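TICKET #2291
ISSUE: user wants both folds in one file
ATTACHMENT 1:
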Amino acid sequence: MVNLEGLSDEQLAVISKACELLARLYMGQLEEVAWLFNDRLPVERYQELDECLNQLKPVITELSSSQHLGINSALVPDLARNAYDIHACIQYHLASTGDPSFTIRRSPPQPCGSFQLPICQPIVESKSA
């Protein structure tokens, strides 16, 4: 069993984003990589990045530039499914903390990969005397 206890919500959010991106790469959703840079690049550069990643999609995923897979597709490796599970559990935990930026996942995640779903516990700070 995976336990993510002891990590702050900010650290969990970073892990969640990394896991989400790994899963999306394996599913052929390369536009999500470009989207990370949406607010950091001028429009022309963002469009160039998006087009470049779209051209790389067939090389990386063997999918056409207009295709992508769902997480439950048999073509998505278990590594990507496990990463998605970690992402989903963290998002569920963060949504339960009341943070308005993490309100998307309100129902408990269902496993896609071979790992048991991780548990996220809030940090319990000890009071020193």
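ATTACHMENT 2:
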Amino acid sequence: MHGLSDCSVKDGQPYCIPSDDNVTFAPVSQEDQLFSTYYLDIAPYPIIADRTFFVKLHGYLKDDLINDLDATLADATFNATTHVSYENGRTYTWGSATFPLRAQAIAQIREYLAIRDMTGRYVEHLSLGYNAILIDGWFSYWFTASGNYTFAVDARLPDGRCLFAFEVTQWIEGAAQ
């Protein structure tokens, strides 16, 4: 599939993030997220095992964060969860893991995270205004079982307010049983 996804409406709000993929605002509704998402891109889509994939989230932090200190954004975290329904009918969920929302290598999920500010400069954490969050990752074909994978991400400030939350579901082909 190429081009903008068909964005359905749920409770009067767009349910999907502007994207070439099937990314949805979940489990927090779009209006309750502080990060206003312009676009999310996953390449290649669908993700192919044994090839590096990239995720780029474009958006800006809404005006109601103006009074928050930079330190509050520096202490933001994101939670990542993966659920899979395997070809043979089994299911499995990788329990939620929480990481600092900062530029870093994340060994537990074999990914790298980078953040760019409105000038395009790489920075350590989100700032007010425009931001682009870049993630790259990889799945080993030999250690990935074929199935329908749902990836969920939920980013929050230390006080619990949601920065962004989304899910994407897709089939990944692998050789593991």
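RESOLUTION: both attachments delivered.
EXTRA DETAIL ON ATTACHMENT 2: The longest strand covers residues 162-175.
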